[in-house]
Amino acid sequence: MNEPIYLTAEGLERLKAELKELTGPRRAELAARLRAAIQMGDLSENADYHKAKEDQAFLEGRIQELEYIIRNAVIIEKEPNRDVVGLGSHVTIQEEDLPPETYHIVGAKEADPRNGRISNESPIGRALLNRRVGDVVEVETPAGKLTFKILKIE
């Protein structure tokens, strides 16, 4: 059974654009590289040919992955209820004696912690789900136990 893959509308559009690039210009460029390598002759010792075949396998694998993600994507809708943290929420939290940080709760395929986008499947993301402003949350992370307070949900 296919598991749903949670994406924002923007994330889905980025993946569709990547798929279009890979199935169009990138695939054509790789085909031209392969033709040129084949024309060089003996394929058994042709490094250009072997590299192009490896690149082709990687490209086709990524195309299949993108097609699967797009086919199974569930778009994160803007929730009217901003009383609790859910997928798509922007949550401002604060650890004791540290400045507040804001995170956007997204699906695993869009997670980018360095840019404030954390997965609903991550330890912090799971701990935040269904919580409210004012809640104090404790979570066990690979870096150790964290305790923070939810300041704002948007």
Describe the structure.
This protein is α/β, with parallel strands linked by helices. It has two domains: 5-75, Transcription elongation factor, GreA/GreB, N-terminal domain (Helix Hairpins, Orthogonal Bundle); 90-153, Transcription elongation factor, GreA/GreB, C-terminal domain (Chitinase A, domain 3, Roll), CATH 3.10.50.30. Helix content is 40%, strand content 24%. It has three helices and seven strands. The strands form two sheets. A five-stranded mixed beta sheet has the order 5-4-3-7-6. It has a two-stranded parallel ribbon with strand order 1-2. A hairpin with a 2-residue loop joins strand 6 (136-141) and strand 7 (144-153). Helix 1 (9-39) packs antiparallel against helix 2 (47-71). The protein is elongated, with a radius of gyration of 22 Å. The model has no long low-confidence stretch (mean pLDDT 91).
The domain count comes to 2
Tell me the distance between the termini: 33 Å
Give the % helix: 40-55%
> How are the strands of the biggest sheet laid out side by side?
5-4-3-7-6
DSSP strand count? 7
**Computed Rg:** 22 Å
Number of helices: 3
- In the predicted model, the low-confidence regions spanning at least 5 consecutive residues are none
CATH class of the largest domain: Mainly Alpha
Beta-strand content: 15-25%
Order of secondary-structure elements = EHHEEEEHEE
Q: What structural class do the secondary elements suggest? A: alpha/beta
Look at the structure and name the CATH superfamily of the largest domain. Answer: Transcription elongation factor, GreA/GreB, N-terminal domain
- Named CATH architecture of the largest domain: Orthogonal Bundle
Overall geometry: elongated
Can you tell me the CATH topology of the largest domain?
Helix Hairpins
